[in-house]
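User: Hello, can you help with two protein structures?

Assistant: Certainly.
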Amino acid sequence: MTTASVCTIGDEILIGQIIDTNTAAVSEKLNGIGVRISRKVSIGDDPETIRTFLREELLSNDIVITTGGLGPTGDDLTKQCLYELSGARSWLLSEEQAAINREILHSRGLDTISGNVSQAMYPDSGEVILNKVGTAPILVFRFSGEEFPHHPVLYAMPGVPHETLTALPKVIEDIRQHFKLPTIYHRNIMTYGLAESALEEKITPWVKALPADMHLAYLPNTLTGVRLRLSIYDAEDETSAQKRIAEQIEALRPILGHVIYSENDDTLEHVVGQLLKGRGETLSVAESCTGGEISHLLTTVPGASTYYLGSVTSYAVPVKEKLLGVHAETVEKFGVVSSEVAAEMAEGVRSQTGSTYSVSTTGWADAYGDEHEPAGTVWIGVSGPHGTRTLRAVYHNDRRRNIERFAAAALNFLRLYILEGK
């Protein structure tokens, strides 16, 4: 099996200044084409460490992918180390990358300086994959000879995450062209409403009946629920693998029902948007404890303006009362975190905007609570053509994660409410 090592380079990652998201993205794409990840490592900006580590990884892997260290400043050392490691004799200029760099800088109102010109230079022992969204090209080194008789390939990618993500398909395509890879087929089933352990228990008979060459993974996430990834490795061909997995998903549907919200790699906000768009209906939001998180998620979906009308972030009680029509007596009697307040918030924003549906949240996201509800409690309200519903949920996480869970639970409650009227 083809193996790969993924390495991030930079002191800023080692000391925690920057969170490394590149290795996850790279590893996921490599796994998707049948490359086994043997190691993921972060190393600092030390030339000897970089050279030693990369040599060792090239000796034991078919592919090495690095991110970082290709910038124009003095602490960007990867390119020089690769020059030495690959036995290069001179530097070449990629005229195409240089033209891209000039265009990028001029579009920002900046002049081209020597550091940016040097980024378009590369060792004569390597090749260039153009970086269309940044100034450092992707460098490719194909090793051979006595030291590396198995002909490993090293791809040096920029460390800026959006540049890595943009260039990754080109790197994957190059790997496909130069390595014999197995046929792997994955299918994701997105679920929400059952914890990982409860989900596993519910589908155990189905799992036990899966063919021996079919593998199931549980991938939980606070915003998207539990993704079930069904895979066939070393498939005879993609068409037959697709058909066989589709048959298994067909058997899973009646077991989980509406717990499944997508059979593609979708999000709750995307699925809610599809439901509304397909029916020509609209949505408004009233948020307290989620502080705009639901609105943010909804507006990340392209075309959201066709169904999403707007929101009120009513964090303070007076705002709930003045803008949403929540009654002071309701707050006094039931508490600000209550079914009654969530219902009035949802009804108030729906009335103000004229939307088909509305969703609201009121809760305690962190260590605070009151005599009515403990910390981590959220009340969700949904209002629409078939009345107003509320839902209570309690989570025991930190503030950030609780907010994410509150928002996801609200979107799922809304999804189920919309489906109720279909």
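That covers the first. Now for the second protein you mentioned:
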Amino acid sequence: MIRNYVRLIRPKHWVKNLFLFLPLLFGLQMLAPKSLLTASIAFVSFCFAASSMYVFNDIMDLQGDKFHPIKKHRPLPSGQINVTTAYLTSIILMLVSLFLGFLVNLGFVLVVVTYMGINILYSVYLKDIVIIDVFIIALGFVLRIVAGSVATQVYMSRWILLCGFTLSLFLGFTKRRAEIIELGENFTSHRAVLSHYNPYFLDTMINIVNSLTVITYLFYTIDSATTAKFGNKLFLSLPIVLYGIFRYQYLIYHKKESSSPTENFLTDIPLLSAVIIWAVFCGIIIFFKIR
């Protein structure tokens, strides 16, 4: 019984909320106890908010998920949890998130409410609008970075925000491509918007946002404000970023792994290692200001 509720709220997807800590990393506040505590409370708050939206989205996608080879085994489409209980779970998670949010600050609460509002619109309507559906998913990641910045009151570079947005678009379009391949001829029965996509169109979008991700990250590392704050060696982390992107594309195109970015991140050791190495490398450059 409890296992079904754990599966319903999807705690393994909370890894996405680590984006909230980026402002601390790039704002030299990771070792500041007060800032770290505030960011941690914000992280937990956003985890409950995200789970609330996952449950709500599952309710909205109930009929389509019954035709999905993997999602049909989730608690709702499999009948292990009923819709009424799922609604109640979503509301409780939402209230807990807002309660914790008020312990942070009002600005953070506004970001969380915005995130919830956008996701409700997505689940009810926007998920059926081609291209906009992926933009909304990407916006969710950007809001995580903004939430971390607002919670800790640490300024976040516009280049990092743009890089986060384009990287999220990359993950969103690769997710759509993987879904089409994963579902085969039945892909339109799961999600209507998939009928507007095809592998060629998605490959074009992936190549564009892939390039933009690399460019915006490079611009951040060589920006005058960045070099003045951290030194001029941060650009050396670019090969690690490139490897991570290429490895992810390899999983989608060659190995045809799961359409879930979280699953790929948590189960592929080389990809996970690349992220950890990038974080450690950037941490050393930032904190020791190696020039």
